[in-house]
């Protein structure tokens, strides 16, 4: 299982953060537009390999935001 690539999202909750404290975590702000429009926050948890990709994409987003300002 150490070599598996996985990613999950879950409602932000202290218990979930504690259960997966040894794994990469980040929060996502989501906008819902279906039955109950609004905003929410999800917790993304990922394996080490997937975490590396997420971190790289986060860096690209920050750089893109900075260059477009």
Helix content: 25-40%
Note the gap between the termini.
42 Å
Largest sheet: 3 strands, antiparallel
How many separate domains? 1
Radius of gyration: 14 Å
**Class per helix and strand makeup:** alpha+beta
**Regions with little confidence, pLDDT below 50 for 5+ residues:** none
Give the number of DSSP strands.
Answer: 3
Number of helices: 2
Report strand order across the widest sheet. 1-3-2
Write down the oligomeric state: single chain
Mean pLDDT, as a whole number?
83
Question: Could you give the order of the helices and strands?
Answer: EHEEH
Tell me what portion of residues adopts beta-strand conformation.
Answer: 25-35%
Overall morphology: globular
Description:
The chain is α+β, with helices and mostly antiparallel strands and about 70 residues long. It has one domain (about 5-69). About 40% of the residues lie in helices and about 35% in strands. The chain has 2 helices and 3 strands. The protein has helices spanning about 15-20, 50-69; strands at about 5-10, 25-30, 40-45. A 3-stranded antiparallel sheet has the order 1-3-2. The longest helix has 21 residues, at about 50-69. It is globular. The mean pLDDT is about 85.
